[in-house]
Design a protein that fits this description.
- The chain has 238 residues and is of the alpha+beta class.
- The chain is 15% helix and 32% strand.
- It folds into 2 domains: 181 residues; 28 residues.
- It has 2 helices and 16 strands.
- The strands form 4 sheets. Strands 1, 4, 7, 8, 12, 15 and 16 form a 7-stranded mixed beta sheet that branches. The protein has a 5-stranded antiparallel beta sheet with strand order 5-14-9-10-11, with no helix packed on it. A two-stranded antiparallel sheet has the order 2-3.
- A hairpin with a 4-residue loop joins strand 7 and strand 8.
- The longest helix is centred in the last third of the chain and has 26 residues.
- The N and C termini lie far apart (68 Å).
Amino acid sequence: MRNHWLKPALLLALGLNISSAFAATDHQHMGDIQPWKVGGQIYTNGSLFEADFGDFYRGNYVTQAPGFDADTAKGAFGAGNWLRFQGLGALKFWDGSIWSNTVPNGEYIEIEDAIGNTTTFTASGVSNPIGVIDQLDAEGDLHSHLDMTIKTASNDKGGSIGAYWIMMQIFETAPGSLVHVSTASAPFAIIFNRGLDHEAFETAVSAVPVPSAVWLFGSALIGLLSAGRRRRTMALRA
């Protein structure tokens, strides 16, 4: 069950290019997204999580998995704060050979948050991208599941057979606020199966590319090391 609170104003200006996301070498086949906080930084237990719109409990087009289960053994959040998600980028579709932003029948994915607001992922972007996962308890803990639904352009539950990919990150705020009280998690992917057999779905998961952020970080690190060497050389010459 989810708690409900006063509806906050949700505003976001997002300018993030995440066309290359996370490698399938670090992901969770089953189980919940498990965030924790250490030193003001939020971490998660993987960079790619799998979900299935064929869940028996929720039907063919709705799932509540993965859920969100705070790992307080590694680091608790602030008691009474809100844990939020932020949708990033745009919906991608696996057609059996490539990932792209072209969906066969106008499909989109909706996530209903803990206070009844809806975040929508389409092939062109994310609307209402910030949602509430749940309120943290007195120990800075939570375990919550949100409804995630795939729909067609006609706004009916349904979706073409294939895999669907969305990106998000997690952050923490005071109740009803959008001001971060800790550093947000790194972005992570959720890959949804819609009607593929296990082998075909795992092929789609394996085709998720290595994040460009890794290469950007490597380039920045090389630049910093080079700059440091230049400064040391100049100091020695002086």
